[in-house]
Design brief:
The N terminus is likely disordered. Strands 3, 4, 5, 8 and 9 form a five-stranded parallel β-sheet that branches. The chain folds into three domains: about 190 residues, Alpha-Beta Barrel (TIM Barrel), CATH 3.20.20.70; about 35 residues, no CATH class; about 40 residues, no CATH class. The longest helix is centred in the middle third of the chain and has 17 residues. Helix content is about 30%, strand content about 10%. The chain contains nine helices and eleven strands. β1 and β2 form a beta hairpin. By secondary structure, the protein is α/β, with parallel strands linked by helices. Belongs to the NADH:flavin oxidoreductase/NADH oxidase family. InterPro entries: Aldolase_TIM, OxRdtase_FMN_N, Oye-like.
Length: about 300
């Protein structure tokens, strides 16, 4: 989809072009031709898992399984980044190798989730000499992602998972060089970033942070900034026009509207999404087949 001078009028901010490092985007909305798609969170090792049926990228079998998926995205004309994560203590012994305790910055256990009823296992605090091994897991996963054909990776550094467990004083009670001061608490995240950048290049690497209050980071960072978290057309246009973000990530409404950029261009009504179809092992239900606009397609 061409982002400039659509339907003989000036393009809205979301549909203007953007250069992201080595990559040229034809609009600022994820996925579709000329756009950017970021995969769901993908485990970097066997200890990174905390949820059922989530993908990984630490084995050759997983790399080979990703290849046709990446190829399909590229055939649609989109760029594709793999989001790398480690859940840390957001896990249970059942998800860990040989039923071991989940690893974290701390041995403090997460309180049970009242809404889902999930009871997390007591984690094991990583020894200082073990941390470089976890950093190397991220490095190796990034290399695997490039081998699978991904254009780059996004490191998951938010939402209470391992990197944020190290960064937050509420979940980091360490007394070594990875705890205490803000600089020390950020050391693990910086080491992960450095290892991945050295492995695949800085222009292929991003990191996910807090969903709101990004302005201080925006002012300190010269690269592409992506905002995410329930944005609609109006708010997405506003943050791009105001310079708060370069790109806006859409998830739920993109699932329900495979031609979302076209709908944004025409300011057309959106299909309503059905969250009950997001995560299910039922092959009959799966994702709902949402309709396109008449005469429209996902490109």
């Amino acid at each position: 989809m061409v982002a400039s001078k659509m339907v003989a009028k000036e393009a809205i901010p979301l549909l203007t072009t953007h250069r992201m490092g080595r990559f040229e985007l034809s609009h600022r909305v994820r996925a579709t031709k000329g756009g950017l798609l970021i995969a769901e969170a993908t485990g970097v090792s066997a200890t990174a898992q905390g949820y059922a049926e989530t993908p990984g990228i630490w084995t050759q079998q997983q790399v080979d399984a990703w290849k046709p998926i990446v190829d399909a995205v590229h055939r649609k004309g989109a760029l594709f980044f793999c989001q790398l994560w480690h859940v840390g203590r957001v896990s249970t012994n059942d998800f860990q190798p040989d039923g071991q305790a989940p690893i974290s910055s701390t041995d403090k256990q997460i309180m049970p989730d009242a809404e889902s009823g999930m009871v997390y296992s007591k984690p094991r605090q990583l020894q200082t000499d073990e941390i470089p091994l976890i950093v190397d897991d991220f490095r190796r996963a990034a290399r695997n992602a490039i081998e699978a054909g991904f254009d780059g990776v996004e490191i998951h550094g938010a939402h209470g998972y391992l990197l944020e467990q190290f960064m937050k004083d509420s979940s980091n009670d360490r007394t070594d060089e990875y705890g205490g001061s803000l600089e020390n608490r950020c050391r693990f995240a910086v080491e992960v970033i450095d290892a991945i950048v050295n492995e695949i290049g800085a222009d292929r690497v991003g990191i996910r942070q807090i969903p709101h209050g990004l302005l201080p980071f925006r002012k300190a960072f010269n690269g592409t900034f992506i905002a995410a978290g329930g944005y609609d057309r109006e708010e997405g246009n506003k943050v791009v026009a105001d310079g708060y973000a370069d790109l806006v990530a859409y998830g739920r409404i993109f699932l329900a509207n495979p031609d979302l950029p076209k709908r944004f261009e025409l300011d057309s009504p959106l299909n309503k999404y059905n969250s009950n179809t997001y995560y299910t092992q039922d092959p009959v239900i799966g994702y709902t087949n949402y309709p396109f606009l008449e005469g429209s397609n996902a490109e």
